[in-house]
Design brief:
With 322 residues, the chain is of the alpha/beta class. The chain has ten helices and eleven strands.
Amino acid sequence: MSSIAIEIPAVDAFPLGAHIWYPQTLPALGIVLVHPATAVPERLYFAFAEYVTQRGLIAVTYSYRGIDGSRPPMLRGFRARMRDWADLDVEGVTRWAHERYPSLPLYAVGHSFGGHAIGLCESSNLLRAAVQVASHAGSMRVVSDRRERARVTFLMHWVAPPLARLAGFMPGRRLGLGEDLPAGVLLEWSRWTRLPNYFFDDGTLDAEARFARVQMPILSLGFDDDLWATPMGIDILVSRLRNAAVTRREIPAIRSDSGSIGHMGYFRQRSGAFLWPETVDWLLSTGTANGVEPSGNLGATSVAQAGASRNAAATSVLITPP
């Protein structure tokens, strides 16, 4: 299914470049918002969005302000903080979808920072259910691999901040580090990585209280070869979702045909054959359990069949609120 390029207004009316993906058969079973990771282009999520439409759902992909399709003509000096991506962009996209499709169940899949935003945003309680993919508390102390911790610490604490101040933005493309970032985003992100519990230790954000107000079911996915979103980092994050029913799954990378998943691999087609069906199955079954009766043809696609043929199972733990 081809997509339609649109603009979605953020809370402050900043235009966010986006695509909406429709299933071939309507009415749709619901809407899946795909909240991206930091410095990742929107196109990474296109294959996943196409699969979502095969399952009878509408998908929405987009970029945060300052990134990819939401980049202004001049990034140097563009004012944005990392928290703005949650408070203005994710909040705006969620409200927009709820207002545009009020009769459809609303879901979200958040990748890394996109999963953080699910916890931070008040509008997340408009969701029927959500999935956090490789979302973790990004403190440097949770990176268990010593070499990777040293590399990322050197970059995030000693190279990137002065470079962002000097250039007026973070030139990630030239350094092979993903998309360019607004300077304010990079500087806030760098500061959070120095804190033991990441942004939960930033008193100006009140992240602990914000996570506690989330009440819908959440599926949290981690991968055993992810050097950044380690079990420790994921546990710090999901432990703050005190009023949500959280299901944690740690997935072995050996299940992938390539033998690796890492921090980005979930959204690549080589992993989709066995990961995406499980995710969408969980969203739809959770929607049904919450009073939404999916209708229409959910017939197994070739992707779903490939996923069903896998023998290895992920470790799954249900964490219920006290």
